[in-house]
Amino acid sequence: MPETLMPETWEARRMADIRADFPILNREHNKQPLVYLDNAATTQKPQAVIDAVADYYSRHNANVHRAAHFLAAEATQMLEDARAATARFIHAASEREIIFTRGTTEALNLVAAILDTELKPGDEILLTTLEHHSNIVPWQMLAARTGAQIKAVSVLPDGDLDLDDFHAKLGARTRVFACNHVSNALGTINPVADLIRQARQAGAITVIDGAQAALHEEINVQQLDCDFYALSGHKMYAPTGIGALYGKLSLLQSLPPWQGGGEMIEKVTLSASTYQQPPYKYEAGTPNIAGAVGLHAAIKYLLHIDRAELIAAEDQLVKLAISRLQQIPGVQLVGDPRQRRAVVSFLMDGAHPHDVGTLLDQQGVAVRTGHHCAMPLMDHFGIPGTIRASFSLYNSEQDVERFVQGVEKAATFI
Ligand SMILES: Cc1ncc(COP(=O)(O)O)c(C=O)c1O
After folding, report:
1. 15-33+306-413 has which CATH code?
2. Which of 6, 225, 350, 390 could cross-link with 39 by S-S, CB 3.0 to 4.6 Å?
3. Pocket of ligand 1 contains residue 109 by CB under 6 Å
4. Is 73 buried (19+), middle (13-18) or exposed (0-12) by CB count in 10 A?
5. Residue of the nearest CA to atom 9 in ligand 1?
6. pLDDT band, very low/low/confident/very high, at 10 (cuts 50, 70, 90)
7. Average pLDDT, the chain
């Protein structure tokens, strides 16, 4: 599939065509067609991605960068093509700035693991209360190793970051600023370009968790001017177990390696080793080659879709869901951010989120309930969790209708 195909318009690619690309959407549950609204947890996979992975294992499988035979050459080429496609996808200056990881969690852990020498006691790591645990816990571990302190930007009742608090907490001691691009719990789109600019001016290393943004936003890491950007393939139609960390080349060159082992070394003696240049310096061991091939296929798939129209269609679904939910007695929306992407979180009076989720599941509607790996945010709002519907390319107004009917039924039942 050439990547240069003209993007097709939303109208031209009718919903039926798009849904036909995702075989799992043919599943039924309790004799009802599946309505999949758990896309922030993971997206479904188009046939093109499933086929690409099957083709890799059926025809090209070998280990990369090592053997002399043709299969190894093909597998290596496929891995490196995937790296180049990922670099282009987020507008990195070079594919050498793309490190393959298992996902966002591993990418963020990698960054936090190589910054020991950059921090000393009294330094500060500035996070936000909106973060997923994977953008909190690795920093707590780094703080424990180095004596640095964690600070977190507060959140306003509507789910936007408190920018006054950001200004108050950002200072000369801030050595790292880590923030998500889009919140998985509320859908808040954070003003990352501004935040990065100010954090850089304060002298901080900037780290962006793009797990929820990679699918929905046009990402340009050079314009953002962040030092690191993390993403997960499985949240953008690619397989699980593959993701990427973007890092500025100069930093990747100067910072120490993370894991040690094969592939990442230049020369090994029993007393010491020298390391490869980035990105290989950060890719010890056999990579997830099939995953990278699947990620490449997902990127190609995404490039066939007009991003602006995709975003407009998702926004339309979110607006519709919100306006319908607001009419159901007992339903309380959680957060009303100024800019929101593809996520609606809510509570139902007198019902535990999990019970509402179970009632929706019985009606064939798949949503997520709980703290969404954002316990500090839930604590901030004084709630145990929410019911979260998250939308994607293949969701239709009919899906919203089924979802709302399900919530109405749950409300009556409860
Ligand atoms: C905002 C955010 N960050 C990080 C992650 C972790 O991603 P993964 O589990 O793919 O590593 C998620 C997953 O839900 C997320 O939504």
Report:
1. 3.90.1150.10
2. 390
3. no
4. middle
5. 105
6. low
7. 95
The beta strand positions in 287-385, using DSSP E, are 331-333, 343-348, 365-366, 368-370
Is 52-303 in the same CATH topology as 15-33+306-413?
no
pLDDT tier, 15 (very low <50, low <70, confident <90, very high otherwise):
confident
CA of 371 to the centre of ligand 1 (A): 13
What is the Cα–Cα distance from 361 to 341, expressed in whole angstroms? 23
pLDDT band at 1; cut points 50, 70, 90: very low
Distance 3 CA to ligand 1 centre (A): 27
Nearest CA to 245 out of 82, 138, 113, 98 is that of: 98
Which residue of the set 226, 367, 373, 389 is catalytic? 373
The answer to whether the CB of 369 is under 6 A from ligand 1 is no
Do 99 and 245 contact (CB within 8 A), yes or no? yes
- Closest of 153, 160, 205 to residue 376, by C-alpha: 153
Domain boundaries, given as residue ranges, for the chain:
15-33+306-413, 52-303
232-253 per-position pLDDT tens digit: 999 999 999 999 999 999 999 9
Residue 17: per-residue pLDDT: 87
How far is CA 365 from each of CA 35, 105, 165, rounded to the nearest angstrom?
5, 28, 39
CATH class of the domain at 52-303: alpha beta
What tokens does 186 get?
């509320």
Residue 292 is inside which H or E element, if any? helix 289-303
Which of helix, strand or coil describes residue 149? strand
Calculate mean pLDDT across residues 145-167: 98
Q: Which of 352, 321, 350, 346 is nearest to 334 (CA)?
A: 346
Among 102, 105, 240, name the best residue to mutate to test ligand 1's pocket (greatest count of ligand atoms within 8 A of Cβ): 105
Provide the 10 A C-beta neighbour count for residue 329: 9
Q: Is 211 near ligand 1, meaning CB less than 6 Å away?
A: yes
Atom of ligand 1 nearest to the CA of 373: 14
Concerning whether 373 is annotated as a catalytic residue, the answer is yes
